[in-house]
Amino acid sequence: MEVRILSDDELIEEIRNGKTEYGDELVNRYYPSILRYCRWHCASRWQAEDLTQETFYRVFRGLDNYVGQGKFRAYLYRTAYHLCVDEARRTVWEKLPENERDPDNRMEQVENIETVKRLLAGLTESQREAVILRFGEDMSFREIAGITGIPLRTVQSRIRLALKMLRKEKL
Predict the structure, then answer these.
(1) Model pTM?
(2) Residues 44, 102: Cα–Cα separation, whole Å
(3) Which of 49, 81, 99, 140 has the fewest CB atoms in 10 Å of its CB?
(4) Could you give the CA distance from residue 121 to residue 78 in angstroms, rounded to a whole number?
């Protein structure tokens, strides 16, 4: 017997039909990537977890307003994006305390993360967002445009300029 994996829109339709257990599948499918995305924007893991949970809460609360067409991932990231932007306006960034770092990371990984954060800090907020979505979350330019609400060509331009600045900074 072949097991068929439902698309996001099919899962949403099942949830709308009262089969709330399908919500677990959506959460399991996207929780790690939304948490990783929020982590890029937050000073602490617990803050990123709070924003991730709030993202799913808002998405499920407003599921009746979601119009399918295979764009649930962009809809989810757009919700997380707005929450992260709002949180960034309220938060002052501080370096992570030693005890909040993942104990399984080797020193080299920590140094690489710090280097990436330092390089990203040199970008404008809009460039940083585009780079995180493109390379941190492996999204297409079109998906980034949908999430951020900016034109496709602007996304491409921001990433191109950001990469130019990053290459210059790294030298």
Answers:
(1) 0.68
(2) 11
(3) 99
(4) 22
